[in-house]
């Protein structure tokens, strides 16, 4: 019999299956693609090849020390333009808007395929090693390009030192449902949550170590300080406090963020984040899977360590297996609700090209009772 947590797993991804190879170019994306042994072997050999020469130690250290600068530079160049807003958020993670009905937000409830079908940008969106994480849909985001608000820098400097120790007071104290997104970037997850989740008890925190990214969030026309608090926080600095107390959060979201961190530091980060969860609270993750197209495209000389690479712009990326993520979360004391691999075949019908994407999606829950 399946373990209770496995029984709760579902397969939420799209259901457009490629049963007849002749139909390959009839749609933009195919779901739950099975890899043949040859394809797996070919991917393994590409990875062996591109990781056969590691970057020297001094270079590796330089990328670690200057990680924030490289992401700042990234957001200065791309602002909010690179990562797209994501209609799949609420079908995959209904926990982000528990009161929402499935007909809201133009969502048909059938996973990724329908949103991807409505456009044709699946390919050609890889730039400087960053592969667009999803396809573009009509933008929900309402962004303005005004200069940073005056209080932004002060907030950034304050939050690490004062806000968490402010006599028990903290942003979002009065809320009944608290969500934290770490590594929020330009806010492509936060703003859809604020738009979609109308629970008056909702409060959304979001942080990033890139001050440029946090400025983009704070200067967004949709930023509402009564419902949201964006702050600068370096996940790798375990001395830096969060602005909310332990056991205060219902949800922590990590979307393509853990992969940007030095693998040796991941466990400490996950363990710290799990302490912020209320009993019954959940960490939600979506991130790169092993042998994703982005990994296979790296060239020799870009590998830092096993499955960890540096892009041309100095930002780094790791490619996970399901077991590695399971180990990180269970070591932090969390229980598996979901740990799925999403293998998708994206098709550019115009260019008659195919692209195999591999993403992993996890939900891990903090137990409500103490384990024996
Ligand atoms: C691939 S981007 C994803 C951004 C966002 N989650 C999204 O999906 O649009 C990775 C993000 O992680 C942030 N990041 C990387 N290392 C970090 C760290 N040590 N502390 C906080 N944020 C970090 C980067 O600044 C960047 O915004």
TrEMBL record:
CDD domains: AdoMet_MTases (cd02440)
EC number(s) reported in the record: 2.1.1.-
Feature: compositional bias, Polar residues: 99-122
One Gene Ontology MF term: tRNA (cytidine-3-)-methyltransferase activity
Entries under Pfam families matching the protein: Methyltransf_12
One GO CC term on file: cytoplasm
Residue span(s) of domain Methyltransferase type: 180-283
Class of this enzyme: transferase
Biological process annotations from GO: methylation; tRNA processing
Annotated spans, Disordered: 36-60, 98-129
InterPro entries, per the entry: Methyltransf_12 (IPR013217), METTL2/6/8-like (IPR026113), SAM-dependent_MTases_sf (IPR029063)
Catalytic reaction(s) noted: cytidine(32) in tRNA(Thr) + S-adenosyl-L-methionine = N(3)-methylcytidine(32) in tRNA(Thr) + S-adenosyl-L-homocysteine + H(+); cytidine(32) in tRNA(Arg)(CCU) + S-adenosyl-L-methionine = N(3)-methylcytidine(32) in tRNA(Arg)(CCU) + S-adenosyl-L-homocysteine + H(+)
SUPFAM superfamilies the UniProt entry points to: S-adenosyl-L-methionine-dependent methyltransferases
Record's subcellular location: Cytoplasm
Keywords in alphabetical order: Cytoplasm, Methyltransferase, S-adenosyl-L-methionine, Transferase, tRNA processing
Family statement drawn from the similarity comment of this UniProt entry: Belongs to the methyltransferase superfamily. METL family.
PANTHER family: METHYLTRANSFERASE-RELATED, TRNA N(3)-METHYLCYTIDINE METHYLTRANSFERASE METTL2A-RELATED
Function: S-adenosyl-L-methionine-dependent methyltransferase.
Listed name of the protein: tRNA N(3)-cytidine methyltransferase
Organism listed in the record: Cyanistes caeruleus (Eurasian blue tit)
């Amino acid at each position: 019999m399946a373990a209770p947590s496995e029984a709760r797993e579902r397969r939420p991804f799209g259901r457009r299956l490629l049963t007849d190879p002749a139909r390959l170019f009839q749609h933009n994306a195919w779901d739950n693609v099975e890899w043949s042994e040859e394809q797996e072997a070919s991917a393994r050999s590409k990875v062996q090849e591109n990781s056969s020469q590691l970057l020297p130690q001094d270079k590796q250290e330089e990328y670690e020390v200057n990680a924030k600068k490289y992401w700042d530079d990234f957001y200065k160049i791309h602002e909010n333009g690179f990562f797209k807003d994501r209609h799949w958020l609420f079908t995959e993670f209904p926990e982000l808007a528990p009161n929402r009905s499935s007909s809201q937000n133009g969502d048909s409830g059938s996973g990724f395929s329908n949103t991807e079908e409505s456009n044709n940008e699946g390919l050609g969106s890889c730039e400087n090693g960053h592969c667009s994480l999803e396809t573009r849909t009509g933008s929900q985001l309402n962004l303005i390009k005004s200069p940073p608000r005056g209080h932004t820098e002060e907030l950034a400097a304050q939050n690490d030192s004062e806000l968490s120790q402010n006599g028990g007071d903290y942003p979002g104290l009065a809320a009944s449902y608290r969500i934290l997104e770490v590594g929020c970037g330009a806010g492509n997850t936060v703003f859809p949550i604020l738009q979609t989740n109308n629970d008056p008890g909702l409060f959304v925190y979001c942080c990033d170590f890139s001050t440029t990214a946090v400025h983009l969030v704070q200067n967004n026309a949709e930023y509402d300080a009564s419902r949201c608090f964006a702050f600068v926080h370096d996940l790798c600095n375990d001395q830096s406090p969060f602005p909310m107390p332990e056991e205060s959060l219902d949800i922590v979201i990590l979307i393509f963020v853990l992969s940007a961190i030095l693998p040796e530091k991941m466990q400490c980060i996950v363990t710290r984040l799990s302490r912020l969860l209320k009993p019954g609270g959940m960490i939600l993750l979506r991130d790169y899977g092993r042998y994703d197209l982005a990994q296979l495209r790296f060239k020799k000389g870009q590998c830092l360590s096993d499955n960890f690479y540096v892009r041309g712009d100095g930002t780094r990326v790791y490619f996970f297996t399901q077991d590695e993520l399971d180990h990180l979360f269970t070591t932090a004391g969390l229980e598996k609700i979901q740990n799925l691999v999403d293998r998708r075949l994206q098709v550019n019908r115009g260019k008659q090209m195919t692209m195999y994407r591999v993403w992993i999606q996890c939900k891990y829950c903090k137990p409500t009772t103490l384990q024996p």
